[in-house]
Amino acid sequence: MGAGPVGYHGVSMGCGLGVPLLAAEPRVRAAVLGLLGVRGPAATAARVTAPVLFLLQWDDTRVPREHALALFDALGSAERTLHANPGERGGIPAFETDDALRFFARHLAQAAGSRLRLPEGPRTPAPGPSAS
User: Among 2, 74, 90, 122, which residue's Cβ finds the most Cβ atoms within 10 Å?
Assistant: First the structure.
């Protein structure tokens, strides 16, 4: 991972692998997680202290909403944010990528003691009617 601050992005199985990594690895200074819930004890999630942006698809049929909210609640991070969007598990809106990039830029820049820059202009199209 190198010496600098590290960000982790993992949803679904990536979230399942990421929670134990975040609990054990202090170089990970920010994480985007989601699309997973608590199964069994949440002790590992309680040891996560890095800021977390958590993604939840409100109508996910694989992970009950209550389980995902329980995982979010179990995270030990003093700074955690929940983004809930309507739709199924594969329907994370494209604008969440922009939000994740801003989240990482903010937190990793603080950890590095500098300011990271985001690419100019929007990466995802604005919502609205499409032109044919």
Answer: 74
Report helix, strand or coil for 37.
Answer: coil
Report d(CA 21, CA 28) in Å as an integer: 8
On whether the CB atoms of residues 81 and 56 are closer than 8 A, the answer is: no
Instruction: Please state the φ and ψ torsions of residue 25, each to the nearest 5 degrees.
Output: -115, 105
Q: Smallest Cα–Cα separation from 67: which of 108, 30, 12, 114? A: 12
How many angstroms separate the CA atoms of 111 and 125, rounded? Answer: 30
pLDDT value at residue 47: 95
- Rounded to an integer, what distance in angstroms lies between the CA atom of residue 91 and that of residue 96? 11
Q: At residue 3, what is the residue type? A: A
Does residue 107 contact residue 7 with C-beta atoms inside 8 Å? yes
Reported pTM: 0.82
Q: Compute the C-alpha angle 94/97/101, nearest 5°.
A: 160
Would you state the pLDDT for residue 42?
82
What parts of the chain have a pLDDT lower than 50?
118-119, 126-132
